[in-house]
Amino acid sequence: MKKIFFIILLTTSHLFPQSKFVFDGYLENFQTVWAPKQTSEWIFSNSIGNRLNFHYYPTTEFMFSLGLRNIFDFGQFVFLVPGYDKIATNDNGYLNLSKKIASNKSAILYSNIDRLNFFYSANNWEIQIGRQRINLGINYVWTPNDIFNSSSFLNFDYIEKPGSDAIRIQYYLDFASSIQIIAKEDKYKNLTMAGVYKFNIIDYDFQSLASFTKDDFIFGGGWAGNISGAGFTGEATYFKSRKNLENVFVSSIGANCTFSNSLFLSGEFLFNSNGITDKAKSLNNIFNIDYSAKNLSPSKFSIFISTQYPITSLINLSIASIINPTDGSYFFNPSIEFSLNDDIYFLISGQIFFGDNLTEWGDFGQFYYMRLKFNF
Prior knowledge:
Order of helices and strands: HEEEHHEEEEEEEEEEEHEEEEE
CATH superfamily: Porin
CATH class: Mainly Beta
Shape: globular
Strand content: over 45%
Structural class: mainly beta
CATH architecture: Beta Barrel
């Protein structure tokens, strides 16, 4: 697979000198204030981030894509979190495309390439090779079908989500059904293969998947449709252990509705057969780099609710919460975003955690954020 990446991806740009080139990205300043539960001292940090997206269209059938992030993190948070530089530059891909450029005890400058792929589309076929976003999830927050690229709702500033080093082949049977074959390798050279069948019945989109990893045989499926105008979604995945360990079943169901005044409401429910019903003791919900479709929450049950409302055409308000109904802890996330013009946005947000000690959400304290973002 590594030879395929280097031969095809790195030489494609020389094959078609006459091309169409598209470039976009953004520059942002992201400030964080953390008020830990265990102390009255506040911790400050700052992140200056730049994203660059390059798309190269030699013909109507071919596309080459490169996406990278350049990030400068500095402040007390970098100094106090053990191994912050390793967390920031961790790359689970088969190719290590993250690079620490410079660092000291309270600052780090690094780059990460999260998209690097070659895409071909003709007739009913699609072929994509390289680092790419493979999105099999259907729900908004908890996506047990998303076995390649699961990411936490708390990591809201990384909207592009991580990529996988993979080969994806898709064939469209008709306008509403398709078959996909996907193969991915990670940095440990562990192979994940999956087959996905998507189809439509009675105005509902369904998908089924079968996969295997070094640890599990995986079977899952999901749907997306509506009931009386309200969105209705769900997905479930069964992980059958190949190592005589406990089998795991993870499922989530969601609903959403937009009213005539543009008020948007949504909710989801998560079940994890491997979760616990006692205190979840989950201090690594924020710092856990092993978040996956099999490990969406340490709790057996979780509830998500959110609302969004455009106060004006330039101001958007949102409130979200994740609740652990068994240990009584919860996460509260208010946000307000201002559109200063077509390209500049200002966000104020909070992630506030409530609960007793050693509960899922009870030990984090409070996080407050300000973000100024310029799109180009």
